[in-house]
Amino acid sequence: MVIIGITGTLGSGKGTVVKYLVEQRGFEHFTVRGFLTEALKARNMEVNRDTMTSLANQLRKENSPSYIVEKLAEKALKSGNDCVIESIRTPGEVNSLKNYPKFVLLAIDADIHLRYKRILRRNSETDQVSFETFVANEKREMFSDDPNKQNLSKCIEMADYKVLNNDSINSLHRKIEEFLKKISYSSKH
Fold this sequence. Notes:
Rossmann fold, alpha/beta, five-stranded parallel sheet, 189 residues
């Protein structure tokens, strides 16, 4: 069993990597976004980037900086399958997950203008924003001294492997396969 954590910049292709791992390699998928969406709906709160960020920060403050991913890692371990956890956003989450055997952190990045185009095409509830708001959202999530808040730059720095996703989807798929070879992953399928 291997657990791959995914971190990276907004719109970089984290979801595309996850989709490939799930559909082509049989990984089970656990997502912070899904966890927070369920929690927001249970609280009758609107689902958007601001409410997700606020709730995530609140849960980390009340419990621990790694609370959300620890809950996801527990589910991953119970499954007994190869798993991918998306999206790691705090150094505390990285440190916690590195205690699990067979955990590897993969960071995804791409050019900011390309990433903005991608989020507009993705068209999720958190993506319908201006370029200026996109940049502001990313800046807010990129750096923080508060261990309960997002610090994508530090998570990317802590990653075991990094992929630059500025090319085609086929190029990204090849890079994923190269990454899997580097971690000596052998598929059960």
